[in-house]
Amino acid sequence: MKLTIKRWHAVTSWYWDILNDELCGICRVSFDGTCPVCKYPGDECPLVIGECQHAFHMHCILKWLETDTSKGLCPMCRQAFKMNGGSDILTNSAAENDNNQNNNLGENTAEIVMER
Amino acid sequence: MMTLSSSHQRPIDTATLLNIFPNCSIIQEDYVPQSLNNDLNHIIEFINYGLSHEIRDQPNNRVKQALKSLFSNNMGGKLLDIYIDMIRQKVCHNNGGDDDHDDHDGDDDSSSIVSTVRTIGLNKDKFLHIAKQLQFNYIQIQIFERSCNSVFQTIIQKNNYLSNQISNLFKNKLFSKNDGKEDLLIIKSTLQYIGLKQHMNEIIINVSINYIYNFINHNFGSRWEEPSMNILANWSSSVLYPTLTNFITSDEFNIEILNQLVKNELVKLRTKEAFDIIVDYPDSLATLKELKYCITTQKQRQHLVNTFIDSCNKRLLHAGANTIDIIKCYLSTIKSFLIIDPRGVLLDKVCRPIRSYLKDRDDTIEKIVHGLLDDSEDNELNDLAQELRNSNDYITPKIDDLNDLNWTPDPIDALPDFRKGNDLIESLISIFDSKDIFISEFMDVFCSDLLNLTDYNVTDALLKLELLKLRFGEREFNSLDVMVKDLIESKRIDHTIHLELDERNKDNGIFHSTVLSYLYWPNGAKSEEEFVLPTQLNNIFTNYCSHFEKLKQGRKLKLFSNKGNVELDLEFDDNRKFTFNVSPDKASIIHLFSSKEQENIKELSIDEIMNELQMSELLAKRAIAFWIKNQILLETKSGHYKILNSLDELSEKEKVGGTINNYYSTEVGIKADAEEEAVKLKYWPFIEGMLKNLGNMELTKIHSFLKMVVPKDNGNGYNLSEKQLKEYLDNEVKVEIDGNGYKLAKR
Ligand SMILES: [Zn+2]
Ligand SMILES: [Zn+2]
Ligand SMILES: [Zn+2]
């Protein structure tokens, strides 16, 4: 018998590859969902991971850092929140999304986006 | 028979009178001089003679003198009283024994009735004649005639037998084409003569109404496609009216009144037929319009409403009716009753029982949602899909009222929601208190539609989604938006990945994927029965994953191994060639057999298969059964299987079936998989329930039970042959053979 598979249309699901938590420490929503502002998960509501290894919805942590009470600290571990990673992970799509999301991203936002 | 002459009767004198009428005023109260008493006796004798003989003699001189003497003594009034009493007594006496006719009912009755009635007329003539001979004045004659009439009226009206006979006679002859109308005319004029004109008219009207109803029922009963009123009006003026004018003598009777009677009877018939007329909509459109025009009174409306609700309860709103039929009837009811009564007052009343019944049915929402979203011709609630497609009109609610000259103010008994019927979808949604419960149903339908897509084409889904938002409000559709967007995004990802694929490895090109944001999909999206893919297939998936991870950094893919669709070709040494579209579990199993064959392993056991693929026995056995049925695999011994490389390996009997299968597998086999699964899913709950309750059942019993209990929705009720059922049960791992029957397998 000769078997030829011509086409395979599979069903998959995507998930953020985060080791520690499943929920964003700020909004308590799954990383695979969105921050309270966004409608579409994934590209439009990306994640960031700090040097302390704590992960958040990008929009959640930005909003937090803007507040006076944050003093620039990670809300989970109270260390200064610094983005993990380099400028190589900025994507055009993320830059577009920034505009859409009406968030005042800081100068260094570009470095924290975990998107292509 | 009633006759007034009786040879055995004694003449009446005052003594007798006193005996018969102890309260008789003339005798008791007043002193009557002997001479006047003698006069009175002479006159009474004269009257008695007249009453008992047909010959009408003139009063002799003695009588004339007695009359003169009486009248001059102002005893005319008393004589009148005496005469009336005598008449009454005579008529009642002679008529007393006539009630025992009720038993027989022969043809002769017609003539005997006529002669009875004629006798009454003749008697009245005679009584009047005698009265005149007694020289009463004009007023006294009038008084006498009235009393005389009332005596005869009592005879006719109190005697059921007689009045029924008269009614029957009219019923049989009034509208018959044969002769015999003379009899009716005699009866009619006699009854008028004795002051029963009204009674006579009533009989005729009742007989006519009956006749009209039967005529309408015979000619237009159960015929609703054409209007009937033109023909009826014609019939009424050319047949009915000319006949009736001979019999009904009334200033108030005219053709308009007759036409109204005809309309009323038409309404009566249509009211009785209401339920069927509405089920027949739109074919019954003509009848509905006519009904609107014919129905005029509040009483008729009320009767229509009550009758329709009664029929609904008896014929529709019970466990035996299927939900689609109830919804269809509900929609027809809305459309039909808005024709009969555009204000919606009647509609509001008749809708209520159907609405509350639908509200309590488990599958109403499911059926409505499928009705809305299914564009195929099989959709029995196609009206809903059509209306959804026309939803753009819905954005601006119509304000026809301002321009409509026939506008009538909302009646006070109308309830606030009575206009809901104007929009079919809205009227269905409004059955339920909240729109939210529709959303999860929408998600299930979209989920299965979107997951069945293999070309990422969401044009149709997007359109439907927009239309639904118009109806249900944007707010609730977040998840559905994400689901549709997942498909769009999946297409983009798939395109990008395929651009970057390594062309040297051809295998990788076959893989495409729908990538879900799993949190936003209903549970139906997740596969319950996971397994491990054969290595070669898994490599293809991993390759795709690595591209995805490069594209979407920080994210990974998880495969739902049992979802999706695999298109594959199978070719055999004996030139059989098939194309199948199957689920990945079936593809994996045939792939396993194929690769083992290359390692020269010809036969695999169920345990080996389950082990290699980490697959549940249930899933594995189902897939194997599918391949056996399509003559790709062969069971060598219990639980052991091999590829059927040549039909020669089959026994003669199996081969016959084989050639047939061979013929259609290439054509139909593509769809067969999904359909077969659906069929099994449909019957399984019934089978499981039966076996759970009854333990062990024989094939024939299960077969006839399914025929009874599986609902016939969408025209695909239980339609397996007993042989097909056996095949299914034998392959179904959840049941096992137990003696002569089947029982649930122990797990
Ligand atoms: Zn968050
Ligand atoms: Zn967000
Ligand atoms: Zn931290």
Provide an overview of this structure:
Chain A: It is found in: Nucleus. Chain A: Pathway: Protein modification; protein ubiquitination. Chain A: Keywords: Cell cycle, Cell division, Metal-binding, Mitosis, Nucleus, Ubl conjugation pathway, Zinc, Zinc-finger. Chain A: Belongs to the RING-box family. Chain A: InterPro entries: RING-box_E3_Ubiquitin_Ligase, RING-H2_APC11, Znf_RING, Znf_RING/FYVE/PHD. The complex is a heterodimer of chains A (116) and B (747). Chain A is of the alpha+beta class and 116 residues long. Chain A has a single domain, classed as 2-Layer Sandwich (Herpes Virus-1), CATH 3.30.40.10. Chain A is built from two helices and three strands, in the order E-E-E-H-H. Chain A is elongated, with a radius of gyration of 17 Å. Chain B is mainly alpha-helical and 747 residues long. Chain B folds into six domains: 135 residues, no CATH class; 89 residues, no CATH class; 139 residues, no CATH class; 113 residues, no CATH class; 107 residues, Arc Repressor Mutant, subunit A (Orthogonal Bundle), CATH 1.10.10; 70 residues, Arc Repressor Mutant, subunit A, CATH 1.10.10.10. Helices cover 61% and strands 7% of the residues of chain B. A three-stranded antiparallel beta sheet of chain B has the order 4-6-5. In chain B, strands 7-9-8 form a three-stranded antiparallel beta sheet. A two-stranded antiparallel sheet of chain B has the order 2-3. In chain B, a hairpin with a 2-residue loop joins strand 8 and strand 9. In chain B, helix 3 packs across helix 4, helix 9 runs antiparallel to helix 10 and helix 15 runs parallel beside helix 17. Chain B is elongated. The N and C termini of chain B lie far apart (92 Å). Chains A and B meet through strand 1 of A and helix 23, strand 1, helix 24, strand 2 and helix 25 of B. Strand 1 of chain A pairs antiparallel with strand 2 of chain B, so a sheet runs across the interface. The site of one zinc ion has 7 residues of chain A, from loops.
